[in-house]
Amino acid sequence: MASSLTCAGVVWAFLSFLCAAASCVGFFMPYWLLGSQLEKSVSFGTFRRCSYPVRDESRQTTVMVEQCGRYASFQAIPSAEWRICTVVTGLGCGLLLLVALTALMGCCVSELISRTVGRVAGGIQFLGGKCSCGEGMGM
């Protein structure tokens, strides 16, 4: 197969794909914050949660639902900050994955990626990485 990438470009493509995959897996996992509530272990991420409290109106108590799931709707995410984080992190993961898959295609197709396209793709990756990591870094 012909490639439009140098050896460094091939390494960049595979590392980009591995980093994008790790970012996407981290985005979909509900283990961003771990703790306990009502003597049960709880965890949640931007749009998924495990072991969460629910008000039982028939008994007038709060019970823990011990299962993982996503929020029923976008508005059900507990705060505006978490909703913003969900959107920004999702966009960052999408950008990273788009560039990584394009770079992998460049390993198989000649003349797909030029030096200019490579530089633009690196800039997009940088932006995607900042979007994915920005919330955790106080940005």
Give structural notes.
By secondary structure, this protein is of the alpha+beta class. It has one domain (9-123). It contains three helices and four strands; from the N terminus they run αββββαα. It has a four-stranded antiparallel sheet, with no helix packed on it. Helix 1 (7-28) runs antiparallel to helix 2 (80-106). The longest helix has 27 residues, at 80-106. The relative contact order is 0.18. Mean pLDDT is 77; it is low at 135-139.
Features:
single chain; 139 residues; membrane; transmembrane; alpha+beta; elongated; LHFPL; LHPL6 protein; 50% helix
Put simply, the count of helices is 3
Separation of the first and last Cα atoms? 43 Å
Mean pLDDT: 77
- Give the beta-strand count: 4
Q: Outline the low-pLDDT stretches.
A: 135-139
- What percent of residues are in strands? 15-25%
Structure class: alpha+beta
Run of helices and strands: HEEEEHH
Tell me the helix content. 40-55%
Q: What can be said about the biggest beta sheet? A: 4 strands, antiparallel
**Strand order across the largest sheet:** 1-2-3-4
Shape: elongated
Q: What count of structural domains?
A: 1
Radius of gyration: 20 Å
Membrane topology: Multi-pass membrane protein
Transmembrane segments: 87-109
Organism: Nesospiza acunhae
Keywords: Membrane, Signal, Transmembrane, Transmembrane helix
